[in-house]
Every structure is written in structure tokens, then in C-alpha cells.
Amino acid sequence: MQTTTHKRPKRTGRGASFIRNFKRDWQLWLLMLPPLAYLLIFDYGPMYGAQIAFRDYRARSGIWNSQWVGLQWFRKFFTSYNFRSIFTNTLVLSLYSVVVSFVLAVGLALLLNTIRSARFRKFTQTITYIPHFISVVVLVAIVNQIFNPVNGLYGALFRLFGGEGYPYDFRGMDTAFRHIYVWSGVWQNLGWDTIIYTAALASVSQDHHEAAMIDGASRWKRVIHVDLPTILPTAMIMLIMKFGRVMTIGFEKVYLLQTRLNETVSEVISTYVYKVGMGSGHAFSYGTAIGLFNSAVNCILLITVNWISKRMSDREVSLF
Amino acid sequence: MKRKKRANAIGLCTEDRIMYAVVYVLMGLLIVVIAYPLVYVVSCSFSSGNAVSAGRVLLWPVEFSLTGYRIVFNYKQVWTGYYNTIFYTVTATALNVVLTTMAAYPLSRKNFQGRKLCMTLFMVTMFFSGGIIPSYILKTQLHIVNTRWAILLTGSISVYNMVVMRTFFQNSIPGDLLEAARLDGISDIGYLLRIVIPLSKAVFAVITLYYAVAHWNSYFNAMMYLRDRNLYPLQLVLRDILNAANVDLSQISDPEILRQLSGASDVMRYSLIVISTVPMMAAYPIVQKYFKQGVMIGSVKG
């Protein structure tokens, strides 16, 4: 109530105060202009164009003159035979990857923190950061080369330990796809993912450790009772944010790892949209509809997790 | 520091010794698991085709040779790709950093009138997007498909990076400086150029690295928007070479023929991997000293 009565008198002079503020801030607006223009054209433009999901888009007629078809494309997707598998694949692959990488990153950060030699700790960190800078094209190539049963490391080690001939080639197989995807990701990003936790651990005060030591707590007990609780709030927020992105699984790696043999588990929404829209069929409207559906699900997820994390961090604040 | 050491020495009981031993062993294993494939790739790239295809390389180069690199150096498409990637990375990163700064600075000013509206416009794009196909149609209408502009004008502002930069400006540049500068008659843009940017080296280093690595490593946008092979960035060239050879060779069933054929192409692939990856790995140590400061201050919510 109070705020409304407070605001009313201001409103009458709004135009004048806007002009006054603009005179003061015009350079800020000038700075803002190019990024804002970019945003409106290249981010909001496609949002406007996404209306073709409800039309039957023909390149010749353009967006405006293509016919409205309502929810036809959405219905087509939901009733198509592979809707369920694409949806599950996306979810399973994401969740598998989020859970594994989260647990390992927190664990590694805690262990790194116990290393007393600063030099060894730095060395370990640097080594684990390196793969982060490798591109997915190269990562997938490395995976394919190393697991080559004929002339890769996998074959060589197999023969070194007394194997005969060539081991089983599991590259491109449906049973191996998810594990290859997730564990190559762990190899690449485990070290990098610990950065935020390592930084949070740096804020643990030495007094807590000393107090625990006087009480006779071993280093391991201090990891569990001092270090872990310190990073738990950060970790929970990171985890929740990751859950918010489960439907936005990256296109690049999945697409490169995809083969005819593993399509049943490797087809996810982003790769499907690409194939439908940019493949030989050029089904622009259908592809856009699937993408829009994905965007909507994402949006709901993100809003939910944002709300949860805000509530969580509010509680944190009120605790102190 | 001394106090910490003494405290640790007192606390070192048997249980702790066991834990440290376990931690050191685990870390040792981790280092091996992460570093071994990298060393293996580099070693293979310096070995002879025969040694690689016979699987004789295990750790160090066998029958040291530069064949792989020689093939790569003679591969014209690789050099076009390399040049294109350098062009895209440098130009796009510069454009990205400039645009990000232009958005981040006004948004870091608490009394900037458009702050709320602009921030909302940016945040919405984090939650929702039109999708790849409407973007493609838009770029077709703008006639920039199959030109360098399609790459330069895609994903030019990462809202995440913008927020990191904005938070850095808010938290680590004292507000009094602005007042002082005002008294000296410095304009907003002058203040940004002469005071804010020189004081924000850390965040600029980090964000430049983020953008540059992303541009160097991505292939999706190029695959989406480019048809002309002369415009292909390195990653797309790599994808063609690394994947295409795979498909062809798998058609051959006799392992001995396969071996001879793949010897040279394998070594070449390893060399390609090394050549394409080294620049980004070399970039990290340069910005490393700014890293902790830049990331931490920037990501603390303000």
C-alpha cells in the first residue's frame, strides 16, 4: 500500500524526469545501443520467427504469408514413434552426466584440498585442467583412435597383457554410447569443474580446523565435518542449476559420437531438430516446433530451479 | 603459514598417515589417467606410421619421425582452415569483448535508468530462445548465410559472461572513484575507458579466454551456416578428415591391408590433433595468474 502511494506523485513528472535522466545518462545509453541492437535482431528476431512452428512455412511465401496450422506440428511430434525415445535419451544422458560429474568434482575438490604440498596440488590441478581446452572434434577423434582395437592404445594394451588378435570394438555401439559420452566428459572437465569448489574451500577458516584438531579429529573427519559443510551450499546451488539445464544437452559431442548403430540411444532433441530442419527434408516448421517445445520445457525447468536456489540462498543469508 | 605447519605436524596420527597415503595414490592415478592419453597422442604424432599401425607405441615415440607433420603441412585444406579459425577467433573475440563491455558497464551503474529493462531483455534470452531454425531463416533473409558474417554475428554476447563482468565492475571498483572522476569533469565513456577498464584486467583476461576458446573449438555454427569450403574453420576441416577416414577404412575387412593403409593416415591424424590443440593450451598459462581473481570476484552474486 505504502509503495503505491509513494509512487503516484512521481508518475506525473515521469516524462520530465526521464528526459532529465537521459540527459545525464546519454553516454550510458550510447554504450548500450549496439549490444541492445544485436540482442533485438539476433536473439529476439528468431523468437519472433519461431511463429513458423504454428504455420506451414514455405520459403517462397515467407514467414508472414505461410498458412496457420495451429498445433499440427506439435501433435505430429508427440505422436511420432520416436518421441518417447528421444525424450528419454535426452534426459538419461543429461542426468547420468550431471550426477557423475557433480559427485566426482566435489570429491576431487575435497581431496585436492587435503594435499599439504602446495606444489603437488598445483601440479595436479594444472594437469587436470589441460583437457578442458581440447575441442569436441579432437576429443571424439582421440576416443576413436585410442579405442581402436587394431592400432589404438586399447588394442595395444590388450595384446600387451596377453590377449590374442583384436579385442571387441565397442566404438559406435549402442551399449557403450552413454558411457563413452559421460566418461570422456569426466576426463575432459573434471579438473575444470573443481575450480568453483576449490575457491569455496579456500574460505574455510583455519580456526575451525584447529578447533577440530584440539578435539582430536583426524584429517578425514575434518574433511567430512569441516570442509564438506563449507562447500555444501555452493555445491547444492551448482547442482540445482545443472538440473535446470538437463534438457539443453550439447549438440556437438552427441552428433559426433552418433553412428547408425547407436542411434536408438544417441538421438537427443538437439540432434533431431538439426536433422529434421537442416537435413534433406528441410522441414523448417516441424523442426522449429520441436525446438520450441524443448525451449518451453527448459524455460519451466530454469524458472523452477532459479526459484529454489533463490530460496536456498535466502535461507543461507538469514542463517548468518 | 608456520603456525599451520606446526598444527599439522601435531595432528599427524596413524589414521592421518593412511588418509594421506590414500589421497596421494588416488591423485597419482588421476594424473596418470588424465595425462597418459595426452602423452600417447603426442608420442604417436612423432612416431613412424608402421609403429603406430602395429600398435607398438605405448608411451614414448617409436621410430621417431615427422611424417605426420609433413603430411599435415602439405595439406592445403588444413592451412585454409587454420587461417580461417585464427581470423574468426581474433575478430569474433574482439567483437564479443567490446559488445559485452558496452552492455556490462551501463548495467553495473546502479542509477542507470534503463538498467532494469535492459537487464530483463538480456535475462530473457538465457531462459528462452527461438531455436536454430528461425536463426537460420533470419540469417538467410539478412543474406549472411555462407559468409564470414554468419560466424562473426552468432552468439556475440554471452549473457553469462556479461553478468560476470558487470558483477566484477560493481564489486571491485570503488564507487568513490566515479564521484572523484565526475569532479574532474570526466564523462561516462571517458571513465570507462580510462579508469574502469585498466582496473579490470583480471576479468578481461578471463572473459577473453572464455570467448576465444569457445570460438576456436566450435564447429556447429560453421556446419550450420557455411557451405563454401574455403570459409571452413579448422574444426570443421578436422571433423571431415578425422571422421571421413574412419568411415572409409571400416569398409575394409582384412586387418593387414587396413594396417598399411591406416599407418600414414593415423600418424597424420595424431599430428593434426596436436597442431590444432596447442594454441589454446598455450593460452591458458598466460591468463592463469588472473584466473582466480577474475572468476571468483565476478561470479559472487552482487
Q: Helices, strands, pairings?
A:
The complex is a heterodimer of chains A (320) and B (302).
Chain A: H1 2-12, H2 14-49, E1 55-56, H3 62-65, E2 67-68, H4 72-79, H5 83-114, H6 118-129, H7 136-146, H8 153-160, H9 174-193, H10 195-201, H11 206-214, H12 219-244, H13 251-257, H14 263-266, H15 269-278, H16 284-319
Antiparallel strand pairs in A: 1-2
Chain B: H1 2-10, H2 14-45, H3 49-53, H4 67-73, H5 76-108, H6 115-127, H7 132-141, H8 148-152, H9 159-172, H10 175-183, H11 188-199, H12 201-217, H13 220-225, H14 234-249, H15 255-299
Care to describe what's here?
The complex is a heterodimer of chains A (320) and B (302). Chain A has 320 residues and is mainly α. Chain A folds into two domains: 1-41; 72-319, MetI-like (MetI-like fold, Orthogonal Bundle), CATH 1.10.3720. Helix content of chain A is 75%, strand content 1%. Chain A is built from 16 helices and two strands. Chain A has helices at 2-12, 14-49, 62-65, 72-79, 83-114, 118-129, 136-146, 153-160, 174-193, 195-201, 206-214, 219-244, 251-257, 263-266, 269-278, 284-319; strands at 55-56, 67-68. In chain A, strands 1-2 form a two-stranded antiparallel sheet. In chain A, helix 4 crosses helix 16, helix 5 packs antiparallel against helix 12 (219-244) and helix 12 (219-244) runs antiparallel to helix 16 (284-319). The two termini of chain A are 30 Å apart. With 302 residues, chain B is mainly alpha-helical. Chain B has a domain at 76-233 and 293-299: MetI-like (MetI-like fold), CATH 1.10.3720.10. Chain B contains 15 helices and no strands. Chain B is globular. The chains are: A mainly alpha (320), B mainly alpha (302). At the A-B interface, helix 2, helix 5, helix 6, helix 7 and helix 8 of A face helix 1, helix 2, helix 5, helix 6 and helix 7 of B.
Task: Tag the structure with descriptive keywords.
heterodimer; A: 320 residues; mainly alpha; MetI-like fold; 2 domains; two-stranded antiparallel ribbon; 16 helices; 2 strands; flat; disordered N terminus; B: 302 residues; 15 helices; 77% helix; 0% strand
